[in-house]
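Cross-posting from the modeling subforum.

Setting up a comparison between two proteins and wanted a second pair of eyes on the formatting. Protein 1 (sequence, then structure tokens):
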Amino acid sequence: LAAKVSHDLWAKATHAPKGALSEFHYRLPNLLMSLASVVAIGILVRRWGFPVGGTLAAFLLALHPWAIRYGVDMRAYSGLILLSILACLWITRIAQTRGEPWRYWLLFGLNQFLLVWALPNAVWYAMAFFIALVFLVFRRGAGWNGLFRLLAVNTFAAMALFAVGAPAILQTVRWIQDLYQPHLITPDLLRTTASELFFGMPWFWPDSREAAGIPSLLARTGGMVGIVLVGALAVGLLLAGLTRVLFRERSAFHGIVALIGASAFYLWFTYAREELFYPRYIIYLLAPLLALIAIGIDTLAQRVFPRNNRAALVLAILISAGGFAAFVAPSLKLLATRSYAPFREVAAWLGANTPKGARVFGHGLGGHELDTYYPTVRWNPANSVENLRAEIDSSTAAGAPFYAVFGYSVFNRETFPEASAILDDPNTFEEVAAFPGIEPEFFFRILRLLPAEAESALEP
């Protein structure tokens, strides 16, 4: 919704022609939320009583590859990072003011509404924040008055959510029913999830053409020994930060435990029900993990350097942020030099290199999305082998050269095996161009039908 409003405002302000596309203005709301997250995490950690840690946490979040990647993503993940930070901030302020001002309760209720509206699985986190505040209102003396306010703002949040979200309930049920491929929780996927949360890169990539130039934790550290050392450092700093928060600011501890507990429950629930899971589904954990690591570094710096030595503390911030930036530099370079998925590059190549009258077919996942950049691409929701043969038959009958765009190879080969087998046959199609993305699955190939083999491709 925010993306549409942003793009519509741009179109009206610039009198853009109908159908004009500005990717920047579509992505602008997420970019602004990502920038706001950097400011918000600094404010939050300072509110917890760690000014040095707050500055460092802002640096770490700004440099984290996940924050950068999803900071311009068209989905709601940058908003989830911001809302998880703000939830902790409102919980902290409610605790610190003993729940007396209404404004923090209202901001918390608004936060609950936006959180679940942004992504349905956030309901677990909203429930966890609610439970955390139930404990806090009695610990900090707000008592029954605080509980009434908590119930009131959450009730209004639920009413607002139902009003705006009810029309999408049937769509969500249909989407779940139409999921092509389960992506289940496995030990390897959990390792990759932890690796991406801490370092913004996956555990490893198999050695393949598609993975060339894409960093992984295993490659970055040089092997398991390096992973153990780097992992031990990150976990040690996190535990140091968690311990200091526990003894210094209990309101912070409750918010962090809510996020960790909700993530653990969501992982268990998803595993038990064998439901779809991707590491980004628990992106809510990114900000608290970085905040705790920053507080851990702050703790060590306070012990090593005199408390009033500001120059030494600034140096500690610069060394820590610089070290993290150097470690994730390959990921930052990847995000700076490659498109998420190379739709623009594919469209540009097709526009410059295909002869007039050529037919272009988008295969499977990625085929429909290509029409944003190359409007004449042909695709079919069924993505059946019969559909592909019909497209080849029509092109051959018209004497038009036939091209196919094939990306998301693992997904498409598993989901549409027969049609993918035709495109993979080197006796039927030849590869004329290939473009990498930021993950191996986002590698796109452009294939051209060999004229002499058009007839054989039509045979069942």
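Protein 2 (same layout):
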Amino acid sequence: MKRALLALLVLAAEVVSSAAAAQGAIAAETGPESRPTRIVLSAGPGLDDLANRFAAELTSLHFEVVRAAAAAEPPAPSLLEGLALEQQARAAVRIAAVEGAIDLWLVNPSTHEAVYRRIVAERDPAVAVLRSLEILRGSLIDVRALAPTPVKPPAPAPKPIAPKPARSRPARSPRTLWFGLGAAATSLNARHAPAWGALAGLHLAVLPKFCLQAEALVPLSESSVAGQGGRVSAWTGAFAIGGSVAPWGERTFTPTLGLGVAALALHTRGDAAEGFRGTSDLNVVAWPHARLAGTLRLSDRLRARAQVLAGFATPRPVLLFADERNAAWVNPLVSGALGLEVTLN
């Protein structure tokens, strides 16, 4: 009897190993890290050694074996199903020894399938065990195939990659302060050639469409007025302040309109004819004026400026030629300028 049982275990290992290809597909699905399929093993009295060997063979086949208490009488299939459900197992196996034979039960509670096999030991035990394990092997493969496929935990959602902030150019600071140099022509009398001078100015933008100006006119040439008894030569300088409005804002070409007032310095020198005497004098008068100007942007830091200033001097200066009074000059007084400006910020 004991030799037949040992032969049963040895052949069970050989038969189940021969099914490695069929079980390999199932094992691949469950994966090496999945939980093994659980089986409840119940053995009759006096079969502890056989049950231990049987449990070892099932464990080597990646089954989890749970030993149940030995019972003298073989339980009914319904009781074996209840035993499997109680242990949360996929199958229950019962081994019992009767006189001259071995009884084998396998119950699958999922399909309610029950397999019973009696192996007569007096005959060829190897053949009897082989036939029994063929039945047992197929049922065990079904048990594993019916086991739920472990659900792989979902892959963690990839962390959203924050878009790189667009590299924007720093905002260009507004050009508010400009310094300019240019040439100016000032007409003291429409009937005579203008006097030339150099014009230097500062222009400060205080609002998007409004700016303040401060300009100085330095004379470079003189103008002359002829009359009875001789000729008068005049040098004209000025310092002006004012404000201008750009109706359409700053652009490539920016026209402006403005008003201002200037301190006008007139230095006169009389060249007398024979019989007359000439004198020299310096007069400072106010010159309120209107301004029409335009700027053309040449680059980010350079622009060209053209402007015309026109107004009347007050109090009105008068030239004396013997008994003749000449009050027509410097009224109106017109000054035009053309130059370049560079930003200082």
